[in-house]
Amino acid sequence: MVKVLLAGATGYLGGYIAQELMKRNYFTRLVIRNINKLEGKGNTFDEFLEAEVTKPSTLKNCCTDIDVVISTVGITRQKDNLTYMDVDYQANINLLNEARRSNVKKFIYVSVLNGDTLKNLKICEAKEKFVNELVNSGLDYCIIRPNGFFSDMIEFYKMAKRGRVYLLGDGTMKANPIHGEDLAKVCVDAIEKHEKEIEVGGPEILTQRDVADIAFCVSGNKKTITYIPEWMIKITLKLMRRITKSQVYGPIEFFLTVACMDMVAPKNGSHTLKEYFESNKNI
Questions:
Q1: Which residue intervals define the domain NAD(P)-binding in the entry (predicted)?
Q2: Which of 104, 227, 239, 248 can bridge 244 by disulfide, Cβ–Cβ 3.0-4.6 Å?
């Protein structure tokens, strides 16, 4: 039986990966920061390790008897004054060191689509620095590069519920975000596959205008859209870099940058954005 260690199991994607591993009867050891976050979820996993991935001492021997490590560790919303280098890079290095020490066969890491060409962004700089370390680690590996998550797109629905959606540029930039459940299947499939990198998006290629239309349709509100010119976005980013810490401008920098470019990956999965918005009507 292949034994898997999953780090980041209580996050949006990590939760779906944990469920998928359980469905496929993989022996699963979860590394979680707070075991109480799993209470009430109704899942029974083989083992738990309560640890701080940013603190190497808490991870000691975490990979003993493990065949494959899957890491979704990364900052999605800044907290605890930790930086991207602290988490997206160093915390994953801590896991990688343990994996090498225990002779783990494969390390699967979830990065971001086009991260290798967006290293000027703080989040991508940290992620790609780890990717380089993983590639040169001597371990078998797979880098998963997903497009945006449905959980990120929920902000469009929240705006539509309030009556107005703000779009960047002319709203024609395209993306195919993916549901966590669909992405989890790709991540678990990678255990047995031989690809070193997998780019993956959802089944629908949508413009920002399309996303706004879906959001207003589900909310039931009249469509009202305000377009923010790109020159204003560029000025905002420059000012934020100068006057705020990375904990503040990092997530905004990433969102504003990728929203001003096409982010299209190979189609995968079956969940649609409309279904996701409908399932979160009361958010």
A1: 8-193
A2: 248
Where is average pLDDT lowest: 91-95, 116-120, 262-266? 116-120
- Give the C-alpha separation, 30 to 47, whole Å: 6
Give the pLDDT confidence score for residue 248 in this predicted structure.
63
Find where tokens 């998928």 sit.
20
Q: What is the pLDDT of residue 132?
A: 97
Establish if 72 belongs to a structural domain. yes
User: Would residue 171 count as lying in a domain?
Assistant: no
Which run of H or of E encompasses 247?
helix 246-258
Residue 78 has pLDDT above 70, yes or no: no
Place of tokens 């008897």: 65
pLDDT tier at 245 (50, 70, 90 boundaries)?
low
Q: Are 82 and 75 in contact (CB under 8 A)?
A: yes
**What Å distances lie between residue 16 and 114, 136, 181, CA to CA?**
23, 29, 5
Residue type, 24: R
Q: What is the pLDDT of residues 15-45, one digit of tens each?
A: 999 999 999 999 999 998 877 766 555 566 7
Count of structural domains, the chain: 1
Domain extent at residue 50: 3-146+179-200
**Mean model confidence pLDDT for the chain:** 91
HEC letters along 13-81: HHHHHHHHHHHCCCEEEEEECCHHHHCCCCCCCCEEEECCCCCHHHHCCCCCCCCEEEECCCCCCCCCC
CATH number at residue 111: 3.40.50.720
Residue 110 maps to a domain: yes
In angstroms and rounded to an integer, the radius of gyration of the C-alpha atoms of the chain is 19
Residue 279 covered by a domain = no
Q: How far apart are CA 179 and CA 272, in angstroms?
A: 8
Would you say residue 186 has pLDDT above 80? yes
From the number of C-beta atoms within 10 Å of its C-beta (0-12, 13-18, 19+), residue 233 rates as middle
